[in-house]
Amino acid sequence: MILPWHKTAFTKLQQMIEQNHLPHALLITGVEKIGKFDLMQQLVGTLLNDDEIIRKDNIREDLDYPVLIRRSNYPNMIYCRAGELNPTTKNRSKEIRIDQVREFCDVLNKTADTLQIGVIYYADQMNNAAANSLLKTLEEPRENTLIILLAHNVKNLPATVISRCQSVHISPAYDEATQAWIAQNIAHKEDFDIPHLLETTHGVPFKVLEELAGDGFMHYQHWQDQLLKLAIHPMMISQMEDFEGNEVAVLNCLQHLIIEGIRLKSLKHEGGLVELNQIISLTKIAFLFKLLHDIQNAINLSKTSVNIKLLLDNVLIVWSHITHLKTYPQISRG
């Protein structure tokens, strides 16, 4: 079954198949948790005329022994991924190493009578040496071979890799079909404003389900409500004790709010948050961008010995006055 927000991307892939224009290398991109792996499975199931065989592959789980690549239930399909145990250090690698990609290419460079498929996920986790070792196979693949790269952030891929692939992008989704899918997959749907849920997760349905699975979303909603009230009623800054101990989570929440505000203001749209609509209507977009930059700096500094509580307080002072600032102040690092 095609996920509603995959329809545009899958239609493009179907047209390639029908017109016999499917390239030897595909690059499927989209933000984290948008379902790139699911779209890849849908494509492969279509090519093999078998939806079940690929869905039996359970390769997202970590193995307790070292491997370079993994085999699919379909005999002529292999996977290459980060997170495999390094045989020398016994640590899990956060990147895809050159020895993995070399093995991946060696397997795909063998002649096959039937379609052979190689999947790298996520390709933007390849180190430079690994990416370079892939180039020759991308440029001169064997016949009957399809290489599929999945990537969260295409900017982290070398231009030489991108130029050798046909790109298919999965966009964030806010449409009614996606909202209906979420409603079918959550309990007590009547308790939630689904368009609002999509806005807070930037149009990523799987994130909606993930955040509703625990109590994290309830905390997030509470912090969001507090932050919106603060920008409308600046004197409430003395009542923000709920933020103590959750400074980084609150900064992330404010970051999401401002990103959504910038998006709505740029498109001249209104969103589902009445208070946010009111705030962005009174705020210069340049100040939103500056505050967004300062918040990202604060999040980065939280990994150091900085006083994160004082830094959050300084950010919140600016946020509480954002609707009537004449000039943007410099935020102290605490």
TrEMBL record:
Keywords: DNA-directed DNA polymerase, Nucleotidyltransferase, Transferase
Biological process (GO), any one: DNA-templated DNA replication
GO MF term (any one): DNA-directed DNA polymerase activity
A matching Pfam family: DNA_pol3_delta2
Protein name: DNA-directed DNA polymerase
Reaction(s) the record says it catalyses: DNA(n) + a 2'-deoxyribonucleoside 5'-triphosphate = DNA(n+1) + diphosphate
Any single Gene Ontology cellular-component annotation: DNA polymerase III complex
Signal peptide (UniProt feature, chain positions): none
Protein source organism: Candidatus Thiodubiliella endoseptemdiera
Keyword Nucleotidyltransferase part of the UniProt annotation: yes
EC number: 2.7.7.7
